[in-house]
Fold this protein.
Amino acid sequence: MTQALIVIDVQNGFCPGGALAVPGGDGIVAGINARMEDFAHVILTQDWHPAGHSSFASSHAGKSPYDMVEMPYGPQVLWPDHCIQGTEGAAFHPDLATGRARAVIRKGMNPAVDSYSAFFENDHATPTGLAGLLHTLEVRELTLVGLATDFCVNFSAQDAARLGFAVTVEETLCRAIDLDGSLAAARDGMAGAGVTLA
C-alpha cells in the first residue's frame, strides 16, 4: 500500500517563542525530517488564520485565552491570536524540510469556523481537500506527526480513521498542549477510533 506522512502544523507559532507555544515543539523537527525519507508522499498542514478569527479570545469581549465558548458548530477553546496569514508565526519552522512536501494543506481560513483537523473544519462537514488528494494518490496508510498531539494531530487522526485510512500516530514525533487532561482524552479517543499510537 502507498503510504504518506502527514506533518501537522510545525509552525513558528506553535514552537517555543510563538504565540501558542507547545512545550518542546521545536524538538521534533529533526526527527520529522529524517522520517520524511521513508514515505512515498509527504504532506504538510499549516494553520492559516485571518486576523480577527472567531477562535481568538481577542475576538470575544471579556474572554481570555483558553476559555470555552459555544459556537454554532459546538464547543470551542478560545486561543491567543496565532498563525495569522502571512506572518512569521504562521511560517513553518525554519529547519523543517518543506522541500520534500508534495502539498501543503492550509486550514482555519474560514473566519467563522476553526479547523483542527487536516481533513475537515470544526463543523465536521466542510472538507479541506486532503482526503481527495490522498485517494487520487492511492494512499491507504497514513502516519501522523507534529503539533499538537491533543488537538490538531488528534482530530486529524480520528477523522482519517473514520474515512477508512489505516492511521498511525508517532507520539515520539508529536508534542502536546495538555489542557486540563486533553492529552489523556485524545489518546483514549484515538485508540477508540482505531488509530495506532506508536
Strands lie at 2-8, 41-47, 68-71, 74-77, 103-107, 139-147, 166-175, 196-197. The chain is about 20% helix and 25% strand.
